[in-house]
Amino acid sequence: MSPNTKGEDRRRLHAMKVHQWLPEWNEVEFDSKHFRAKPPESFFLFTIPATDLRALSGIFRRSTHGGIARSRDLGIQRRHDAERSEEIHDFVSHGFPWSALSNQRRESGEYNDLKKPGWLPTAIVVNILKGDDQRHGTVVHASDVIQVEEDNDAGAELVLPLSFGAPDWHPTGLAPIEVIDGQHRLWAFEDRHFAPGFSLPVVAFHGLDISWQAYLFYTINIKPKKINTSLAFDLYPLLRTEDWLERFEGHPIYRETRAQEITEALWSYPGSPWQERIDMLGVRGVRMVTQAAWIRSLLATFVKAYESRRAKIGGLFGAPLGADRPVLGWSRPQQSAFVILLWQELRDAIAATSYEWAANLREEDNTSPTDAAFAGRFSLLNTDQGVRAVLAVANDLCFVSASNLGLDELESDEVGNGTSEAAISSGLTMFRRAKVGRFLRDMAQSLASYDWCTSGTPGLSEAERSSKARFRGGTGYRELRSDLLHHLAVQGGVVADAAAEVADALRF
Asked: Which residue range is the domain that position 58 belongs to?
């Protein structure tokens, strides 16, 4: 039914109640700690002016300036593709194929016969937050809560906020409605003066936990093969850590594709220290770490789940930051930018150092086209073990420091793929200006003081050669990781504190 818009009645929406619950569903494992509290046994159907729903949903333009407001939950308010919403806006105005015409053709007047109605009959799927529902520790302000009054088995009334109705209304803090599916349709009505009489059908849950929202989004959009799977994980970060999905689809659905894309970004991005310096095709005789080795190392570090049941240190891109917190909502280009920035800082720190180990490598490999201390044939950093060790300690230190560094407040609106140069450049700029940029710089300075010579470096003593030989083979990954953590832990500062915490958690 449509809302009555006269006087005070404008604040009430008449809704139909749809009961969908089977006794068998009581066997599902509900767990509020993992954002899977038992869902309501009914949902509601109603209509509402599109511009009103957009306002109640708190869908506003975001900016990375000054960080992201806590009122925007990273798992729910997803990234926005402006072009997609503009296309919907044009479709609503005059239907298809008018919406697909160029501006020049529209203005010519020769195609006016192509104008058609722009119906949007498919329901927007939303969740109405209850007064005690928290998102990042924030709740809907008491004056903004939408009351749901069920009058009988078939009906209900939704009582909108008392102040709602003013042209410039916006929620005091957290918006009372979360959009599960259909946010791009709502963005088409960003202008509150556009199509004022245009209403949308709505399916509304009440108090639905965010893991179930991710599940709904997946079954609506992915199961019918409507959108690209990688895009779904970017739009709804919570899906990255859903155990039911990982067990059903396996690791490749997210982790391996992310590791491969980050590796490609490291190889292709012009500002990457590894541009065209990763062996992407397994060429024999070339001293480069292979693509496969990079992917394995990323899977074991940034894109991993948790280290173990005992050590709750997870991958920054692949695990929740804590028992009561979701996974970081960083986009694919953000993830690529973060790893590239890590290596940029380490490259620059080593280039500026004159430690004895670095001077020896430059002297022994003076024909190297790059800094031999960073990427020469005798540098551990140019080996499988060295790459993984750096990725491991950087991931672990950032993971345990995530709250102090405000990592969950750093989010970009960029929607390009993980190798998009423009989107990666934007991410690099954002990270450098943030607190984590200084953290990575300090960590790189400490790592530069470590002796990165391989066991094959000319001029080493037998004791030195034997010590370095520990890092060869399968056990070398753990040995070098442990060595780096202990080295960082004695350097002083917040980096040292984080390294000591990680070493203790891993029992190194």
From this structure: 7-227
